[in-house]
């Protein structure tokens, strides 16, 4: 039976769409900062497979000589990134949404099945509640990455006042590397996320804007014709 | 911690196949279809307006009047961050020290303030006492006669690189202990954690040609790791590294480590700062 099912609460939709431009601008201004000492590469010894980043990359996006501007954007937007992330985490805790989001004991196996299905190696996708195992793992990991960015960022922003943190992360240079790698992680997350959203289609995308999703719900479920509730603890 | 659980309906939806990719078109004109259309339209209008507001708001911030090389709202946030850092600052937190064997020669980045040849014999440190008018002059020998402090710390450039350097010189706090010219009542600094109440709030340091200048907050200036430095890596400073006397403060980025000090003065207002006038954070503290 087709129903409109509430998927994303209003608060989570706001957190999501506030985070998108804020994190994008954090990464953008971070690249302006990174340009001033762009020493990272993939390679060994004298061999470099990839340099972060080729000159053409900076030239294409006009990213050179913007260190001061980059720091100024970064140190303004960090507050928004932090506040939005904190509110999101508090909201998921107090609303109970965390029960859909934290991985459970089925998540690893389910994530494997989802991955096989998405790669076309498995016919059926496992049944889901709101998020499948792969999503639970990804959406929890990205929050931990956010915490990591805040901590590594603080460690390179105030390395003396937060010396315990900087030393705990292995020193100033190490914390800068970690901050950079986490940023690569967001970009990777973004690529997979957008690809999955495109694959999933309009119904799914609309749910992150309008909150509801059209679903074909088994008739043994809720009888309400319009909006149905989920049970976050149901075994998938 | 008690967590409020959302209301669980009597008959929750059981797990079922993901709706992704299914044909889930609603019958046109049905109550469900109308409800879906209404909610979709409303949400996209609100979302569109919010996005527009965000873009216009950001453009507004970027086009506010310039305040030393950056739009005013950004300068205000930098300064607010600086005040927050100052409130959290403790003199007892020290920059980590390293074995002297790790010390390297730092890159020379820019030569503002160093373009005239140094006449070492004629050089004097000029200090304007706080609230006074008579400039005091100090020879390098008088500086070197004060207690010597040496440490090996990481010099961090605002560009993002760092290098371990060994520095030796006189703590600025020790200088102000011997020459109590930074407080109105003329009290020395015997303990940098308990400075005199009428100490100047800021210190201005300027090169002899006045081409390069930095400002420091007093609590950073009298931090035990802030030096009037005359030796780097065991050797007297060379002209390109700030001979005969330079500022070293591992509490700040390299841009505050002014080379070839000419004049030091104590001010009530935040002193001019070479890089802060070009869009950088005035505090630039660690």
Automatic annotation (TrEMBL), chain A:
Subcellular location: Cell membrane
Residue span(s) of domain Cytochrome b561 bacterial/Ni-hydrogenase: 8-211
Keywords, ordered alphabetically: Cell membrane, Membrane, Transmembrane, Transmembrane helix
Membrane topology: Multi-pass membrane protein
A cellular component annotation (GO) from this entry: plasma membrane
One GO term (biological process): respiratory electron transport chain
Superkingdom per UniProt: Bacteria
Any GO molecular function: electron transfer activity
InterPro entries named in the record: Cyt_b561_bac/Ni-Hgenase, Di-haem_cyt_TM, Hydrogenase_cytochrome
TM ranges: 12-35, 73-94, 137-157, 177-198
Cell membrane listed as a keyword: yes
Protein name: Thiosulfate reductase
Automatic annotation (TrEMBL), chain B:
Pfam families noted in UniProt: Oxidored_molyb (PF00174)
Domain Oxidoreductase molybdopterin-binding span(s) in chain numbering: 116-275
Region (Disordered): 1-37
Lineage start: Bacteria, Pseudomonadati, Bacteroidota, Cytophagia, Cytophagales
Gene3D superfamilies with a match to the protein in the record: Oxidoreductase, molybdopterin-binding domain
Superkingdom to which the source organism belongs: Bacteria
Name listed for the protein in its UniProt record: Molybdopterin-dependent oxidoreductase
Pro residues biased stretches: 1-18
InterPro entries, sorted: OxRdtase_Mopterin-bd_dom (IPR000572), OxRdtase_Mopterin-bd_sf (IPR036374)
